[in-house]
Amino acid sequence: MLSDQTLESHTTSERDRILAWLADNVPQSRIQHILRVEQMAISLARHHRVDVEKAAKAALMHDLAKYFKPQKLLTMAHAAGLEIDPVSKANPHLLHADVGALIARDTFSVNDEDVCSAIANHTLGQPGMNALSCIVFLADSLEPGRGETPELEELRKASYRNLEQAVWLTCDYSLRLLIETHRLIHPRTVATRNWFLQKVKNSQQATDKTA
Description:
By secondary structure, the protein is mainly alpha-helical.
């Protein structure tokens, strides 16, 4: 059953069309994840006074290309002129966010740059992300289905306190997991972590000077 928040966020017909496409292209377990991301994105958007409709739409569409085969991701990324760095070439799955934004644009006529950027940035992040992209990035990483550990609970609380701080803390969390499991780390995640860490530090320093 759809919540009132979801129904308010964008039209039923548009949402149904996206869900129908997802049903044909991703497993049911992934759709449940997508719906949890959608709900957390709506909640964060309301809390931080960000456009709720955009947050709901980007969250609902963030994993459009999640289950595309590696060669399809590489082919679509190449055709669109997207950067295919060595890490992405070795692990094409990392391209699913950027390719998902292309699907949103070409299949669902999403021309809103904020929504497309939020879809494209939800996995690796991006230095200087706006609040909408931060919200979808955090909702994808921290939705309830990810687990109930004390660390995740703290990150969820941080996402309501300060989006920028929550982004660098969540990047730290993700980087630790990647290191522990001996997986490749994409430089964009490191760059995102560094940018938001520095932004928070600069803000704190400015506050300290005026205190």
